[in-house]
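Input (USP6 N-terminal-like protein):
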Amino acid sequence: MPKLHRHMDSQYVAAPDYTTAWFVKLFLDALPFQLVLRIWDLMLFRGEGTLMALSLVLLKINSRAILRLKEDGIRLHLQALYRQHYNEDDTILEVQGMLGEMVKARLRLPQPVRLQKIAELTQNAKERTADILQQNGTETLSIHVDFSAHDSSPDPELSTYV
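Output:
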């Protein structure tokens, strides 16, 4: 989207001005909640590249409006995307299409974590725990987790011993 890029550059609107909040909050306050949940599902399935693809799709969808706006208007518009109506199915399809375009453009996308990798990590953790126990000369490892210090705990007396 070179025309959009030139316009935003001429208005001194850099990508970090709006994408930082999108990425840090995983679009939670940028889009309607139901769409955010579907994006998160896609991100878990396809990886972090989904965030970049969604950003590009949002710019594409809003390009006409952005091209009519000036510096602060662009920022305000990009902060208020959640007020717009999005067809969830169409948006998800566009994000998937954008992911395909990103692959064709040979952009290096992070790979999603696969269940096999999680199993390997679990096995590695078990082996490291066994090594620690052997080094300490003990047969059990005691871990105390106290949730009572956190306001979000449903039960203030909740604590777990493993």
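Residues 42 and 50 are 7 Å apart (CA to CA).
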